[in-house]
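Milestone M4 deliverable, item 7.
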Amino acid sequence: ASGASELARLDAARARTQRTATLSDDEREERESLRVRKLAAQVRALFEARGWNLPKGMRADLAVMGGTVEGHLGMSVLAGVAGLFAPTVMIAPAIYFFDASVSSPLWLALLGAIVGAALPTLQLQGKAKERRRDFRHVVSSFLDLVSMNLAGGRGVPEALQSAVSLSNGWGMV
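Output delivered:
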């Protein structure tokens, strides 16, 4: 094969990769509702006005998962609100039927809000850790395939292209 045909093939593969990355961005934007993004943008503006920033580790986790700061803040706020009301709703029958104290559900509601707001961050950290592990496996496999192709007599461009063409998963793309 001539150099020009190889270059054209590599350019076509790169264009295919860019289309795949664009599709995943569009899918993410469709999943996040407009209202959640608006709410999260307000929360982010409030945080930035007070000088509070997300930790670098959380930003890195969001980058690995392809998420946005607004999406994460929106889910944290919604989970916090759900955690605020969940214990109250579950304990309301006990208060009504058994004449229990009202102060304990208030403490449970506060605890539920804190746990609910922290839960998306904990899930993000777990998923990002798993995705990083998967990515290390993909890179290791890719390098093994390249070295086997080079040992088999292929040139560097052919070895790279051959190893890349075996998968179209997010790690390889």
